[in-house]
User: Fold this.
Amino acid sequence: GENVEQHPSTLSVQEGDSAVIKCTYSDSASNYFPWYKQELGKGPQLIIDIRSNVGEKKDQRIAVTLNKTAKHFSLHITETQPEDSAVYFCAAKGGYGQNFVFGPGTRLSVLP
Amino acid sequence: EPEVTQTPSHQVTQMGQEVILRCVPISNHLYFYWYRQILGQKVEFLVSFYNNEISEKSEIFDDQFSVERPDGSNFTLKIRSTKLEDSAMYFCASSSGSSGETQYFGPGTRLLVL
Assistant:
């Protein structure tokens, strides 16, 4: 089955700097890769996603890149703000199943 | 904006008791999911449900668990005889399609088994 790794587990950046979180997956048939932001006590909220037929997608300060050959995808947050502080989860959905396999999460702290 | 809702937000129960966690998915969605997140760990898939039947389930989803869509709006997760290790956040999610479709998560129910 699918296995998703995520690095780093914790990340601290100064406000205004960029943050990059990387994930790798094992199932080459996976075709959908969402990123979720989870604030304390809340459910995961989708922030951006990418499908396997696209290499990059951007939404304002957030971008995701996908390298299908290497089986890794990354989240890029530019001009970070304190409200970006949260736990970020990447996920991958296999080609044949319906469920997501989540990475272990990255705790991002944006220091003012 | 439509959202997934879950009740209760917190549930405390004694080991061996039955609990039912409730979810109201987004109204035009057809696929429903339950996930579990043990404190400090990653989100884990439990089960997916479509057309009034389970379409996929994980190893976690053993005979103690069951899901039901009792009416046109609610989607429930029942744990028949709770164990200490069932303590976790339980998230419901829904999507309009299955393949490559965005899943929207509810706020979760925090279950504590004593």
In short: The radius of gyration of chain B is 13 Å. The interface with chain A takes residues 4, 6, 31, 33, 41-45, 48, 50, 55-56, 58, 91, 98-108 of chain B (CB under 8 Å).
